[in-house]
Amino acid sequence: MATNVALAQSLPKPLLVVSRDVFMQHDWPALGLTPLWPHSYKLDQQQFEFLLKKPNFDPRELKLLIKIILASSDGEFDPAMCYLTKDEFYLFDQKLSPTAPIKSKVEGKTVTTFLGLWELLELGVPLKSLALLIPQWLEFDEWCIDRSAKVITSAYLNAVVASRRDFIRDQVRDTKVADQLFKQLNELGSHLVMTTAVLGLVWQEQQRNDDTVELEEKFLSTKNGNRLKGNLTGVIDSLLQYRDSIQKLKVALPQVLARQVEHTNSLIQYLKCLTDPTQAYKIYLDGRGERVMLRIIKDPPENIWQTKLKPLTLVIASNGVTVDGASGFASTVLGAPVKVQALPLGKVAPKEIIWITDLPSKNSFNYQREIFRYLKLWIESEAQRALVVMPNIRLLGDFFNECQPHLGTKNILTQDIAGNLELLTEKLAGMDSFIFMVAQYGLSHWVSALPDIDQAVFLRLAFDPPNKTAQLIASLRCRNGFIEYSLPKAVVNLKITLAQLYWRAKEFWILDSRIVSEDYGQVVRRSLAGFKHIDTSRG
């Protein structure tokens, strides 16, 4: 990211585009860049004053109002000074953010989020005179694909009723009208409860080995499928009745009513796709246990690189563009040839990657036992200041619970007990030795807290779960989804991670024997230029 910040500082009219996490982690004005916040982070003054004047506050509303007041100066709300939890942000977005995007000017050296860029493109803000820097190009591409899918979970269906109850309490002053609307929502809630239950039965009926399944019209011909269709029809009818009832209401904030109607209409259209799957491009159903998730993609996902971004000047300064053996990967994703220029490291001795070749494959029955035993012995004998990257949070939790009691003399921290970035930075700086353990997906958030370390240890090459939307769409775009998308994407992400740690770690260890034993492993190794590869056994 430092390279891209330096590029943005050197260009006359840059627009740096980063993920939400990166955007929230930096003091951009101190770096000479002006942050451009998406509209969902901005405060609608009219809605704020309306909420302040409510005769009674929900405890959640009161806490949110206090945070907003504390983050305001001279009547201006500063989102950079207001940390909101996930639930608080949802409440803020529902009740206090503008009901429609506000057209913004991009002036000077600017930085924004993926959503901020999307809003600028949707509103037709002129960007041709700017240089767009998108270092997290692959993450942005996946974000765009995810945005094309409407995700419906049981929690979402519960919120369908709860958010509309909130609207009635806030906006409807006629008690008779409000009572009638609440009755309609009670009926809607009953249909949604039954829909969630039957959806779970359909999932159990159709799934194989917990794989994601594509919801097809034939699924609705079964007994449970017919029940699902009937309950969905009841949900749609209840939503139509509710929409028709609120459309002519006189409320204090007409724009809030208009948004409520718009959201209800949109939900109705998506639910109609479930009663007739031929109306959608793809519908995916998956779940774990009793939790079920639907992803409804009404239209084929847009390749934004070839539509909205095509006329613009793009700069992708990233360590993870090329992959040996899949040199056209970036071109495949972007839909156009990519000119690649390496970023030189300068005259430095190559750092070592140590490959442990004789650990069991992750599919072996004794994998977890053997990998935990090896890690435990390594921590006891060699580890000083080290980072251990687990492939997922479950394995991280299992190791900590199983082995930490036997490693009492070691300073072992995990991302769950690290606190915030500032606390972790202070903790690690004061320790002569430590083991910091993190799941792969959370590494980019915590890496800035690390001081210089002796080793960075990766249990295995992290492939995305096969049920991610981008992975499912890749199987439609590519002849071989693994070779043409999953593998090169995993290599790109590994290269980016190694680049983030390059100047912090003395050496890197990778405990994934597949990279040595499988044919595709050579693609991984050849792609890691600038490193000295050493194969060794655990003995």
TrEMBL record:
<protein>
    <recommendedName>
        <fullName>ATP-dependent helicase C-terminal domain-containing protein</fullName>
    </recommendedName>
</protein>
